[in-house]
Amino acid sequence: MSDANGRTTLWRRLRRPSAKYSLLTLLVIGFIGGIVFWGGFNTALEATNTEEFCISCHEMRDNTYAEYKETIHYKNRTGVRAVCANCHVPKEWGPKMLRKIQASKEVWGKLTGSIDTPEKFEAKRLELAQHEWARMKANNSLECRNCHSLQSMDAEKQKPRARKSHEMAVRDGETCIDCHKGIAHHKPHGMKEEDED
């Protein structure tokens, strides 16, 4: 079939596909684009959970990371090591996204230079620690509980003081961070008495 100008209607159809094929093409491209975006997003997200990423700025490497290397979470008889993300980033997707949004304040601190010297870091240490303690208290020390569980502890193998403290924690509904501040980093100067546990 030809039109008045001698062109075939088949050529016209090929140049302007039907709405059905256009929608199908858009769906396929959208699906493939979504997979590529999601894969790239998750890859970038997991890259920001590595120890290498966390200590890539000198503020963390020279301050908190240096302290952490002196703790049982870094080196111990079993060889099990908790890296930064194990304690500071939840594993579940929703809480992880919320934590990443909260971490943007740390990026802002890096960009503005508010903690770029040891002196500035020490001046803000208590404030930073209080934010982290409040976050951990609010989520019932979720990151601690990924590895430690009061119910799984063998109380008979604990020292008497630890056993008594853990029994009281269960009874009183306390969470790990209520007693274990300073477990991986130095306690800040100027802590209030109620924070000293």
Question: Which keywords apply here?
Answer:
197 residues, mainly alpha, 11 helices
Major sheet attributes: none
What is the H/E string? Answer: HHHHHHHHHHH
> Average pLDDT, to the nearest integer?
84
The proportion of residues in beta strands is under 5%
Label the structural class.
mainly alpha
Q: What fraction, in percent, of the residue positions are helical? A: 55-70%
Helical segment tally? Answer: 11
How many beta-strand runs? Answer: 0
Radius of gyration: 27 Å
How far is the first residue's CA from the last residue's CA? Answer: 89 Å
Unreliable stretches, pLDDT < 50, 5 or more residues?
Answer: none
Q: What's the overall geometry?
A: elongated
Question: What do you see in this structure?
Answer:
This protein has 197 residues and is mainly alpha-helical. Helices cover 59% and strands 0% of the residues. The chain contains eleven helices and no strands. The N and C termini lie far apart (89 Å). 8% of the residues are buried. The model has no long low-confidence stretch (mean pLDDT 84).
